[in-house]
Amino acid sequence: MDGRNVTTSTISRRPLGRAELRRIDAWWRAANYLSVGQIYLMDNPLLREPLRPEHVKPRLLGHWGTTPGLNFMYAHLNRAIAARDLDMMYVMGPGHGGPGPVAAGWLEGTYSEVYPDIGRDLRGMHRLFQQFSFPGGIPSHVAPETPGSIHEGGELGYSLSHAYGAAFDNPGLVVAAVVGDGEAETGPLAASWHSNKFVDPRRDGAVLPILHLNGYKIANPTLLARIPADELTSLMRGYGHAPYMVEGSEPEEMHQSFAATLDHCLDEIGDIQHEARTARRQPVARRPWPMIVLRSPKGWTGPATVDGQQVEGSWRSHQVPFARAREDDSHRAVLEEWMRSYRPEELFTAEGAPVPEIADLHPAGDRRMSATPHANGGLLLRDLQMPDFREYAVEVETPGTGAVEATRVLGGFLRDVMAANMDRFRLFSPDENNSNRLQDVLDVTGRTWNAETLPGDDHLAVDGRVMEILSEHTCEGWLEGYLLTGRHGLFSCYEAFIHLVDSMFNQHAKWLKVSNDIVWRRPIASLNYLLTSHVWRQDHNGFSHQDPGFVDHVVNKKSDVVRVYFPPDANTLLSVTDHCLRSRQYVNVIVAGKQPALQYLTMDEAIVHCTKGIGIWEWASTHPDAEPDVVLGCAGEVPTMEALAAVDLLRGFFPDLAVRFVNVVDLMRLQDEREHPHGISDAAFDALFTKDKPVIFAYHGYPTLIHRLTYRRHNHHNLHVRGYKEEGTTTTPFDMTVLNQIDRFNLAMDVIDRVPRLQAVGGPVREALRDKLVEHRSYIRAQGEDLPEVQDWQWRPGPGPRTETSDPAQNAPEG
Predict the structure, then answer these.
(1) Cα 339 from chain centroid (whole Å)
(2) From CA 110, how far away is CA 126, in angstroms rounded?
(3) Smallest Cα–Cα separation from 701: which of 597, 580, 570, 555?
(4) 379 in Cβ contact with 542 (< 8 Å)
(5) pLDDT value at position 332?
């Protein structure tokens, strides 16, 4: 805004009568009053006496600048919901304007319903003010504690992708998505404007983006507020929207203009959906979806100046417009004048309740945006209709044989999950669904696409359910919005590039952690990641595609939220995925290979092994009835194969050596049961890994994580972990393991070096193993492929039963 009071608008009608205008403006003033009170006051909520220092909070926290605009839009959306009987959600990109939706929830009565101690009266208002951004209270952002929210908004960039995720498969829902102009500068937000090309107006709901331009971030101007209007309009049209502008600061004119524009946009949405849902020929041509660009002053209705400096319409109003109201009499006088400018005596009764014309100015029941069940998705969640994963089993006659693409097998299972749940399950992937071997899903659905199609395009369909866009952020945001509103999904991604959504995962995990303690929040379906194209088979793409560290990042989160699985073959992958798709309120990370690989367990064995999460493979152990000389542990597809190959070498060189083989599917079983719900007791851990024998552990990722999970164990000083150590290039698959010293030859040498009785006699064998590494290096540099004995290696069955030993003192995990 440049200070002008002139209101301009693309739509020029004046739809509000005097009484309706007066009521909407009163509601807006009430919401603004309550918002300022939350930021500043801890007592004297209705200013029944002059403000004194002790009435003001000692620490002032919050964001005022965006809040009056959020309240303004909320008031008008309420009018539209009531007039049209709409099912609507409100997603606030600038969720740091937390006082606004909290005030709206209190005015609508929802806040008092979910928090009975904060009633719509003077005592409740006092509690409402005091709790905000206060020890023992609520955060300043739109957190899980805020009814009606699925979007925290502290980290910017995800409002549109969350909104579209909520709209998919929700044909009656309209999602009003406020995009802050600071947020609009982020890469994730810029990509998510394209979400409108993935909407099917026949079976999806609609998103109404509202780009709120108030001109400033914390201290800088915002780009979209400073480019010419025609440039901004062209940008939005290029994204596939029909933009409608509303600009000004004079309240009455702004109310009329915004009401007219909102009505026009909702009419257009209705027309688009009606045309698509009644057309005889499908699909109909894609039309631009409407959006609103609202320009209003930052800190609108706040103090014009403080201490001689501009506040309203400037960056100074972004957070707390002035911070010394407790100790500075002049600042406190400005605060009191500001709050009284809303005329609270007209807005609230003597008992502190909203006056009737405000208290009733909202939709009824679930139509209230603060009470919509879509923002408490567990209320709407329906179980998936699941096929029996056992029917997709790979036959395994001899362990450690075959050549099966595990994720391709999973694709057949997911195809039938999709077919049985065409209204509540989707796959999300950044252009990698086929690369990740899940293309069987395309037998029952297409790739979602509502832009131009050309002959030769592969499985593009307006009503497709495989969501692919080359933006990990957008995929993640869509899936989060989809889950938070009561549906199910799975996100498959190259392992190295899932790091792009590290921060988004953070926010979702924190949301789950907090909502676990909010009784009125119902559990939602878990966020499921399938990470494939993993580090050990990125030999062709090279170093840039090699990074298994997302798991380290995930494990930092609270143990009641995160789960990590390393199924070593197709049958274990099927069992783990079935479990994860049925689970609630977790983030599940599954790491699995997509290249042809050996298979180890029959389906029955896989179910037992995955239920336990960790176990001894007796068929892979030598002298299983004897006390082991060494334990070989492993987690991950390639580490499992290399550890088995090391056992094969060792039993040939040292027939009397007792090797115990332990495989880990559920990574968190390694942790102490006091630290993680899936952890096992010290007694169970010792029964697997012993108290005093050397343990060589081959791990899929960075070795330090295994040490971190096991550092309290009795035998940790004997634990030696091999894993990825940032070595790799364009090379052969086996050379990747050699470069990181997780290969069979290095593992076998580790055993020789750490088993005391082998140290004296193992020298010649060690030299033979080193010679094989030299031979390997020479061969791949001459031939461009791995040694035949490596490429063709399979497990040679030895004596002993083909069953797993039960893990002592442990039960199957519940989660």
Answers:
(1) 39
(2) 17
(3) 555
(4) no
(5) 97
The owner of tokens 């590494």 is 773
pTM (two decimals): 0.95
Q: For residue 4, what are the contacts with CB-CB under 8 A and spacing of at least 6? A: 248, 249
**pLDDT number for residue 2:** 44
Write out 724-775 in H/E/C secondary structure. CCCCCCCCCHHHHHHHCCCCHHHHHHHHHHHCHHHHCCCHHHHHHHHHHHHH
Cis peptide before 283 (omega within 30 of 0): yes
- Structural contact between residues 52 and 361, judged by C-beta atoms closer than 8 angstroms: no
- For residue 492, what are the β-bridge partners? 530
* CATH number for the domain running over 389-597: 3.40.50.970
- Look up residue 182 and give its two tokens: 């600071």
* Number of neighbouring beta carbons within 10 Å of residue 436: 23
Asked: is 8-374 a CATH 3.40.50.970 domain? The reply is yes
DSSP type of residue 486: T
- Only one residue has tokens 């009053």, namely 33
| Exposure letters 769-803 (e unless 16+ CB within 10 A, then b) | beebeeebeebbeeeeebbeebeebbbeeeeeeee
Q: For residues 795 and 598, is the Cβ–Cβ distance under 8 A?
A: yes
Q: Are 159 and 96 in contact (CB under 8 A)?
A: no
Nearest to 38, CA basis, from 138, 143, 186, 121: 138
| Cβ atoms of residues 71 and 32 within 8 Å | yes
Fold classification of 621-805 (topology level): Rossmann fold (3.40.50)
* Domain coordinates in residue numbering, the chain: 8-374, 389-597, 621-805
**Which string of DSSP letters, residue by residue, matches 365-417?**
GGGSTTT-GGGSGGGT--------GGGGPPP-SSTTEEEEEHHHHHHHHHHHH
Q: Are the CB atoms for 19 and 34 separated by under 8 Å?
A: no
Cα angle value 798/800/804 (rounded, 5°): 115
pLDDT tens digits, 354-381: 999 999 899 999 999 999 999 999 999 9
- pLDDT value at residue 3: 44
> Which residues, 6 or more positions from 180, have their beta carbon under 8 angstroms from its beta carbon?
66, 93, 94, 156, 159, 212, 214
CA separation, residue 741 to residues 218, 454, 643, 730, 750 (Å): 49, 48, 12, 17, 10
User: Coil, helix or strand for 671?
Assistant: coil
330: which 2 tokens?
Answer: 């002049």
- Dist CA 153 CA 150 (whole Å): 9
Closest to 739 measured CA to CA, from 776, 764, 704, 765: 776
Q: Give percent helix, percent strand, percent coil of the chain, each to the nearest 5.
A: 45, 15, 40
> Positive or negative CA dihedral for 31, 32, 36, 42?
negative
Who's near 230: CB < 8 A, 6+ residues apart? none
Nearest one of 522, 536, 509 to 592, comparing CA atoms: 536
Give CA–CA dist 710/698, Å, rounded: 14
Largest CA distance in the chain: 99
- 295's enclosing H/E stretch is strand 289-295
Listed as ranges, residues in the chain with pLDDT below 50 are 1-3, 799-813
8-374 and 621-805 share one fold:
yes
Three-state secondary structure call for residue 430: coil
- Measured between alpha carbons, how far is 583 from 246 in angstroms, rounded to an integer? 45
Residue 815 is predicted with a pLDDT of: 55
